[in-house]
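User: Here's a protein and a ligand (zinc ion). What would the complex look like?
Assistant: Let me lay out the input and then the predicted complex.
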Amino acid sequence: MPITGECFCGDIKYQVNGKLRDAKSCHCSRCRKAFNAQASASAFVEPDEFVWLSGESQLTSFVGKHGYGLQFCKKCGSTLCTIHNGKVFQVTLGCVNGSPDIKIGQHIFVGSKAPWEIIPKGVIQFKEGPK
Ligand SMILES: [Zn+2]
Ligand SMILES: [Zn+2]
C-alpha cells in the first residue's frame, strides 16, 4: 500500500511511492510558527517518489532564502510539505494518512522549546541540532 497524505479540507492529496525516512521533530520558535504547533513533525521522502494526486492548483508556497520553502493548502491552511527548488523533500507527518511505517527518531532544538511545552520522558532529544 503506497503512503498517501492529504490536507485538512481534503482538496489536496498526494502519494509517496517509497518509504518515509528520518522523521524529526523540531521545537525551535520558527517551526512552531510554520507548523502551527509545539514543534514540526516531518519525514524525508525521495523527491522522485513524491506525486500530487489532486488539488495541486490549491497549493501555495512560502519560499525563503536558498530556495527552501513550505507548501500549504490555500483553502484550509494545512502545511503539507517542505520543498527545495520546487521539489518536495519532506512531508509533514500530521497530513500523512493511516499508519506509515515510521517513528519520530529525534527531537531537535529542544533547548528553545516553548515554555508551555512538556517533552515526554524517554524521547531522543538534542538541545540544538542532531550530533
Ligand atoms: Zn485543504
Ligand atoms: Zn525548527
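Summary: The longest strand covers residues 21-26.
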